[in-house]
Structures are given as C-alpha cells and as structure tokens.
Write a structure and sequence with these properties.
By secondary structure, the chain is of the alpha+beta class. It has 2 helices and 9 strands; from the N terminus they run αβββββββββα. The protein has one domain.
C-alpha cells in the first residue's frame, strides 16, 4: 500500500515538472486587449480594425514586434498596408517560463525628429502564462493566421538592415 502511494506521489511530481516546462515558441502572437472598430455602415464593408501589437518568433530565435493597424475580415487577417507601423527586430531565448528578448527599433512609418535608426538595444522579458504570453502589461495569444505575413516581414526587414549594416 505504501509503495502504491509513493508511486502516485512520484507520478504527480513528474507531471507538475512537465507542466512547468514550456514548448519552444514560434509563430505570431496577437495582442488580445484591443478595441475593435467597424467602418461606417454605409460602406458595407465586413471588416473590423484595431490598433494592436503582434509578436513573431522564428524557429532560429529571431524576433519581430510590430505595432500597427490589424484588419480582420471574414476570410483574412493581417496588418494594414496603408497605416503607420512601428517595427522592432531582435532575438529571443527561452529560460524556464520566461522569454528573454533583446531588440531594437528598426523602422517607423513616420520618423521622429532627431531619432536615429536602428535604435538602442532594449532588453525585456515575456512571461508565459498557460497558453498566453504577458509582455509590457498586455496579453498575447497565438494567431496562426498571421504567421506567413510576419515571417515575410522578419525576412524583409532583416535583408533591408543587412544591406545598411544595421544588424539587430
């Protein structure tokens, strides 16, 4: 009987340690606490938009953070190409339940007076809570619909910066 309880206890402890480990992250993660807006009814558009942040993690530990306007239609989801964007590039490293980020501002649609790009390196942590990420007081959930777009953004910005020697 005692041996049975010891086995059960060991199984429970090993299960807890497995839950504490986080699977490697990849893909796009969309900010959840956004205010969705609809266009005027007379336009008869079936879309919504929101100012949002999106995080993208590549398997080779590169990272993009973009702030911009997210468009959501019945058949698609993506960042608006006609609105302003702010893009940060960097790297990520997973340790326990925290992602350690190193990144810098690499582009902004509307330049700020006196700002030099790429900007200074920043270091922040993202905490993993269940199936969500917590970053700068915001929650992010996985959004596979944005993966291809953000993979292309990461590749394009990396190539553009490589040509100007502004490695992230």
């Amino acid at each position: 009987m005692i041996l049975r309880y010891i086995c059960i206890l060991l199984c429970l402890q090993s299960g807890a340690s497995l839950r504490a480990q986080v699977a490697p992250l990849s893909g796009a993660w969309r900010q959840t606490n956004v205010s969705w807006k609809k266009p005027p009814a007379e336009l008869e558009l079936k879309e919504r938009s929101a100012e949002a942040a999106v995080l993208y993690f590549s398997p080779d530990q590169k990272f993009v953070l973009m702030y911009g306007t997210l468009l959501l239609t019945p058949s698609s989801e993506g960042m608006s190409h006609g609105d302003g964007r702010i893009v940060y590039l960097g790297t990520w490293n997973l340790t326990g339940n925290s992602l350690h980020l190193e990144y810098r501002l690499v582009s902004r649609t509307v330049a700020r007076y006196g700002e030099t790009l790429p900007g200074p390196m920043q270091r922040k942590d993202i905490h993993v809570r269940g199936s969500s990420l917590l970053f700068q007081k915001d929650r992010f959930d996985r959004d596979k619909k944005l993966d291809n777009e953000f993979k292309a953004i990461l590749q394009g910005e990396s190539v553009r910066l490589g040509k100007s020697n502004g490695q992230p």
